[in-house]
Amino acid sequence: MEAKRSPYLKHLYVCVNRRDPPEASCAPGGSEGVREKLKSYVKENGLKGKVRVSSSGCMDLCARGPNVMVYPDHLWYSNVALADVDRIIEEHLAPLVTESAK
User: Fold this and answer.
1) Looking at the chain, which terminus has fewer C-beta neighbours within 10 angstroms, N or C?
2) Rounded-to-integer distance, Cα 80 and Cα 49, Å
3) pLDDT of 21-64, one tens digit each?
4) What pLDDT, on a 0 to 100 scale, did the predictor assign at position 100?
5) How many whole angstroms separate alpha carbon 98 and alpha carbon 61?
6) CATH superfamily assigned to domain 10-101
């Protein structure tokens, strides 16, 4: 086994778990669109290699999904709609773009 520090400044996990109805899960709530919007921002703003957006399985808060976790910030967002992604970007990713421009 080999252990290394993560090469990413931020790592966002977006739950895309899909369960059969009537069970609650994140994917039917639009989590795949949330993930894609985050990934597009990373790509379009030159953050590839600095920020990783990963699909996640169940985070055990299905009834409060879609769920997004941001590390190393240790923040967990629940009930995330596509319209909420701009706030996540503003708070966690946009500062990295500004830092890169310096």
Assistant:
1) N
2) 25
3) 888 899 999 999 999 999 999 999 999 999 999 999 999 998 89
4) 65
5) 33
6) Glutaredoxin (3.40.30.10)
Query: Are the C-beta atoms of residues 38 and 28 closer than 8 Å to each other?
Result: no
Both tokens of residue 86? 């701009």
Sorted by where each begins, the domain ranges of the chain are: 10-101
Q: What is the model's pLDDT at position 101?
A: 60
- Torsion angle, CA of 21/25/30/32, rounded to 10 degrees? -110
For 29, 31, 97, the CA distances from 78, given in Å and listed in that order, are 11, 11, 25
Q: What predicted TM-score, i.e. pTM, was given to this entire model?
A: 0.92
Sheet of strand 68-71: strand arrangement: 51-56, 10-15, 68-71, 75-77
As given in the structure block, the two tokens for residue 40 are 């597009």
Sign of CA dihedral 56, 27, 42, 44: positive
What is the chain's mean pLDDT, rounded?
94
